[in-house]
Amino acid sequence: MRNSRIFGVVAGAMSLALVVAACSGGATPAPGGDNPYIAIVSKGSQHQFWQAVQKGATDEAAAKGATITYEGPASESEVDKQLTMLQTALDKKPAAICFAALDSKAATPLLEKAKAAGIPVVGFDSGVDSDIPVTTVSTDNIAAAGEAADKMAELIGEAGKVAVIVHDQTSQTGTTRRDGFVNRMAEAYPNIEVVAVEYGAGDPVKSADLAKAIMTANPDLKGFFGGNEGSAKGVLNALKEAGKEGAIVAIGYDSGQQQIDAIRSGVMAGAITQNPVGIGAKCVEAALDAIAGKTLEKNIDTGYFYYDKTNIDNPEIQAVLYQ
Amino acid sequence: METPTATSQSRMSKMLTGDALQRLLALGALVILFMFFSSISEPFRTYENFTSILVATAVNGVLAMGVTFVIITGGIDLSVGTTMTLCSVVLGLVVTKMGLPLWLGLPAALAAGALIGMLNGVLIAKAKLPPFIATLGMLNVARGLAQILSDVRPIYFEGNPEFYSSFMGKTLFGIPNVVFIMFGAAVLASLVLTKTVLGRYTFALGSNEEATRLSGVNVDAWKIAVYGVSGLFAGLAGILIASRMTSAQPSVGLGYELDAIAAAVIGGTSLSGGEGSIVGTVIGAFIISTLTIGLSITGVPDQWKLVITGLVVIAAVWLDILRRRRRA
């Protein structure tokens, strides 16, 4: 009696799983078919940045006649989950793979397998630190964060204390944006001091607590650089809670509703935006070129923009912002 | 033949080996931390920073109160962090997508939390799942539901400016209301734990579940109620965190359960059940936020902050074990 009930529950759960799988089956087409199949394994699926990359890839694939799948782990620390996804993608024998590694070294054995199987690999975003990828489609984060430093310097009169909040010091985007900003300040602006660099895991509340602690420790702080969407939101929350909106220059990264609103209202001076839709589109384009046997440049720069109140409504900016 | 001195001595030692001792140690540790950071850092001892620490404690403190109930029964609740996320999403949906007033959204968020908690309780009490597994599963269910309901997008409380002002606004001494809500919740939780039947059975379940059952108590029902309380507090935490972000963020919340459990444990709630207090848990939550902010203000690198916070948790549990062994 008891066993049969347990069996019923388990059977019920499994059939639910099957139903869900069947319903979403349309998103994972069988490899083969008429169109070339490109498997895209990204660094995340939840941040809107990654959803914008997906949109660019999906649109480009529809336009060029390719079939794609797009997946990424829930958070950008789940290296192991991403490797499982890469393995699954390989098992489906795609015509090409687009891959943004959370940890390049950890992925090397799988990439060697792809190479041996003759599957071209296109790196994107933070790319893959090896010579296997035929090309890497990415933003030059060092240059972009350097431009944020230039704007910051201009806005605070090239003197005073500034601080940096980034998501972490273990990912390439975290370190390159931090270094791009900090090094540019050190090189070009001797009167600006970077008093603190904190890591808030991209959590808008934890980043806010850190930003408030920095303001408390440095009452004369003149500027904040938030190195990704969550960090920038944290800076904005901190300024609001400390009642210092407008008193401290804030420069952010990427977009999202909160940053866009803050830039329009003047609480945030401006932000760097990458071109996530462009990254997705260029990825698919590069993969198709690789499948066709064309030689590709080692790096494809998808560019970045600094946007503020004055240019936020320009079509070229609007095209790359996400809500 | 007992002399009066011996009696008072044994009472004294009883008091000092109970969870009162751990609470006292935790309070002492908090005071020492405060004095230490205040003496080495001028900005730390400002009123402004004091309020920052209070605000940083609010969300974790409220989560930890609910977890305290569960841990006292000898159970664990790993789902509180993502239940909090789900509740903030429910709140966001009710007031933005459905356009209903805030006073309907708040109880909806609390109800969602209580419901998830009671589901945990049913899985544990009726289906006999180990609490660790049941709530680990629920952690993912709540996280997934939060993402489904929000379409994996943040929900902004636009058109509800009163939401931010009623929770983060400052009505007394320049301290945001979330702090008073946390203290209010603490008083309530403490009263429930020490003065009501629910509280009594919470301790009874943790001390000896079988004896409690044999004395005719409906153990299953009270267990479900206790997990419901944990979910309810997660719901309140969901409201507080949403107010700080003026939005419901479906990707924020994972990992918060560990800080909540750490706060309860540092505050003297024993993972083997039967012991614990809300006062201790609030002190534990304050120790965590004071450490985080103090280390940040004094410029300690992030990686060392992690090491130090981890060591504090280990030390707290070790003290708990030492004092248990001495008693045994």
Written description of the protein model:
The complex is a heterodimer of chains A (323) and B (328). Chain A is of the alpha/beta class. Chain A folds into 2 domains: 33-139 and 276-303, Rossmann fold; 141-273, 3-Layer(aba) Sandwich (Rossmann fold). Chain A has helices spanning 2-23, 48-64, 79-91, 104-116, 141-155, 172-188, 204-217, 229-242, 257-265, 276-291, 315-318, and strands at residues 37-41, 67-71, 96-99, 121-124, 135-138, 160-166, 192-199, 221-226, 249-253, 270-273, 299-301, 305-308. Chain A has a 6-stranded parallel beta sheet with strand order 2-1-3-4-5-11, sandwiched between helices. In chain A, strands 7-6-8-9-10-12 form a 6-stranded mixed beta sheet, sandwiched between helices. Chain A is elongated, with a radius of gyration of 22 Å. The relative contact order of chain A is 0.13. Chain B is mostly helical. Chain B has a single domain, classed as ABC transporter involved in vitamin B12 uptake, BtuC (Orthogonal Bundle). In chain B, 77% of the residues lie in helices and 3% in strands. Chain B is built from 14 helices and 4 strands. Chain B has helices at residues 4-17, 19-40, 47-72, 80-97, 102-125, 131-150, 161-168, 177-195, 197-207, 209-214, 219-245, 256-266, 278-297, 302-327; strands at residues 155-156, 170-172, 175-176, 247-248. A two-stranded antiparallel ribbon of chain B has the order 1-4. In chain B, helix 4 runs parallel beside helix 6. Chain B is globular and about 55 Å long. Residues 1-15 of chain B have low confidence and may be disordered. At the A-B interface, strand 7, helix 7 and helix 8 of A face helix 3, helix 11 and helix 13 of B.
Query: Uncertain regions of chain B: pLDDT < 50 for 5+ in a row?
Result: 1-15
Radius of gyration of chain B: 20 Å
- What is the element string of chain A, with H for helices and E for strands? HEHEHEHEEHEHEHEHEHEHEEH
- How can the largest sheet of chain B be summarized? 2 strands, antiparallel
What is the CA–CA distance across the termini of chain B? Answer: 24 Å
General shape of chain B = globular
What does the average pLDDT of chain A come to?
Answer: 87
Estimated structural class of chain B: mainly alpha
* Number of structurally distinct domains of chain A: 2
CATH fold category name of the largest domain in chain A: Rossmann fold
- Relative strand content of chain A: 15-25%
Tally of domains of chain B: 1
CATH topology of chain B: ABC transporter involved in vitamin B12 uptake, BtuC
Q: How would you name the CATH homologous superfamily of the largest domain in chain A?
A: Response regulator
Radius of gyration computed on alpha carbons of chain A: 22 Å
**Strand line-up in the sheet with most strands of chain A:** 2-1-3-4-5-11
Oligomer state of the chains in this structure: heterodimer
Percent range for β-strand residues of chain B = under 5%
At the first level of CATH, what is the class of chain B? Answer: Mainly Alpha
What is the CATH architecture term of the largest domain in chain A?
Answer: 3-Layer(aba) Sandwich
Question: How many DSSP E strands of chain A?
Answer: 12
